[in-house]
Amino acid sequence: MLCMKPVLNLRQIEAFRAVMLTGSVVSAARLMSVTQPGVSRTLGLMEVRLGYPLFERRGRRLVPTPEAEALYREVDQLYGSIERISQVAQDIRFQRAGALRVATLPALAQWLVPRAITRFLSSRPNVKVFVQSLPSRQIAELVSTRQFDVGVVELPLARPSIDTEVFDPVQSMAIMPASHRLASKKIISLKDLDGERMVMLSQHSFIRYQIEDAFALAGVAPNVVLETPSSSIACALVAAGAGISLVSKWAAAPFASADIVVLPVKEVLTSRYAVIFSQGTARSSLADAFAADLRAEIKLSDQN
To answer: Is 264 found in the same domain as 280?
Structure first.
């Protein structure tokens, strides 16, 4: 002989919980915005289906049986979970919860992106952020395949399936040790660098093409002693005394100190950066919010 499990519906569970909370059918009906007979019928049917009484009637009050107390512990956990789900849903709506995956090129991982993430989290303490530093081409690949929600890259970048929001051009700067003979100047011309030991970005980079064209137009022959694809590594080499480098203002900024001088370049040499998203998919509100905070940090840095 098969024993059929009793089947309870949500209305019965809701009525049972209301009585347990209020202690009477009248108060439970008021809490549920239904009639008193309706609550009584629901409880009666629930007890029939369970096969045991839930309450003892003592005047106008209902006293829970031990079975009812045991059942209520499970029901209370259920409603606690529902309330947590409701809270999470509201947190997601108002960007107070969730997760964001950010990929950034190394040059901006030193200060700009961390500041933007800190600004982003200041009003979203329950949001989790995963951030990784990668080359721009790899970032574009990972964002296009939705392995990251948002990326910060250097342009130009030929990659389908991404949406690109470009920032204003960023001027290149000369970075050198404070002990260098040119460090006392207010502005550096490319002609000042003729014959100087230079740490240059790799030849496949777009900014390197610009720099070499500008050197050629100025009739300058720099002494390139080191090459690297990373602006951050170039700045670190300068800090170690390897020579002078030309990098974007954003890449040089975190290295400026009493020992390292960052000077504007007279000639127009610019880098272009952008924030990218996966194309053709719904963009998360957290990704949009991070991009807005990144723009705010850029604007703040331009004012300083």
So the answer is: no
**What's the rounded Cα separation, in Å, for the pair 127 and 286?**
9
Owner of token pair 């170039």: 234
Per-residue pLDDT tens over the stretch 157-184: 877 789 999 999 999 999 999 999 999 9
Q: Contact at 8 Å (CB) between 284 and 261?
A: no
CATH number of the domain encompassing residue 63: 1.10.10.10
Asked whether residue 176 falls in the same domain as residue 264, the answer is yes
* Amino acid at position 199, single letter: V
Q: Kindly list the distances between the CA atom of residue 81 and the CA atoms of 10, 75, 77, 241, in Å, as whole numbers in the listed order.
A: 15, 10, 6, 60
Which of 93, 128, 147 delimits the end of a domain? 93
Parent domain of 221: 170-271
Dihedral Cα 178, 184, 189, 193, nearest 10 deg: -50
Residue 4 lies in a domain: no
What is the count of structural domains for the chain? Answer: 3
CATH code of residue 241: 3.40.190.10
Residue 101 belongs to some domain of the structure = yes
pLDDT (tens digit per residue) in 14-49: 888 888 888 888 888 888 888 988 888 998 898 888
Boundary (domain end) residue, out of 78, 93, 108: 93
Give the predicted TM-score (pTM) of the model.
0.68
Please answer whether residues 273 and 153 qualify as being in contact, where contact means their C-beta atoms are separated by less than 8 angstroms: yes
Q: Residues near 66 by Cβ (< 8 Å), separated by ≥ 6?
A: none
